[in-house]
Amino acid sequence: MKSLRSAYPCLLLCLVCGSAVAQTSGPDTRQISDPKAITSASNPNARPIPIDDLYFTRNVSSASWSPDGKEIAFTTDISGRLNLWKVSANGGWPIQLAQSDDRQYGETWSPDGKWIVFQQDSGGNELWDVFAIPSDGGEAINLSNTPQIREEGPRHSRTKALPTMFGNRQLGVPTEKHCTPIG
């Protein structure tokens, strides 16, 4: 106890000095960059991007590796809608797993690799339901089926054979909800 009392002033001094040093190296003491001083290499062959080309840009997001590391599930709008696809980790053309006019996002593989769980909204309302689809393709199953509640970020429980949804929000109250078992 006596050694703690003698160490206390030393600890207090270290904290005060440390905070003083931290304050002197903060953003307020740095010089603002002069935009005219920033340069980048120019490309003499560059051309303006035609407006029509902007319509052909594609989005890829929320990639998830299969448990065996051989495949990657992801969301892309390569078909014109944000849907669920998968591709071999060795490369190749992706395979569309689910086709819908509604957005699909946040996919994750089941621990055994047989299912992919994802969230899908309805008509852009952002009231996501959680779906499961066989990883080899097939019919998607609505696991939550709660049209007035938003379920987001489906993840599989490590101790249970069913997915766990996080971010289930009704009236802004975050909760955890377990879904219907699959398989």
Task: Provide a descriptive summary of the structure in words.
Residues 10-24 and 169-175 have low confidence and may be disordered. The protein has a domain at 58-178: TolB, C-terminal domain (Neuraminidase, 6 Propeller). Helix content is 15%, strand content 33%. A hairpin with an 8-residue loop joins strand 6 and strand 7. It is built from 2 helices and 11 strands; from the N terminus they run H-H-E-E-E-E-E-E-E-E-E-E-E. The termini are far apart. The chain has 183 residues and is an alpha+beta fold. The protein is elongated.
Question: In brief, what are we looking at here?
Answer:
The protein has a four-stranded antiparallel sheet with strand order 1-2-3-4, with no helix packed on it. The protein is built from two helices and eleven strands, in the order H-H-E-E-E-E-E-E-E-E-E-E-E.
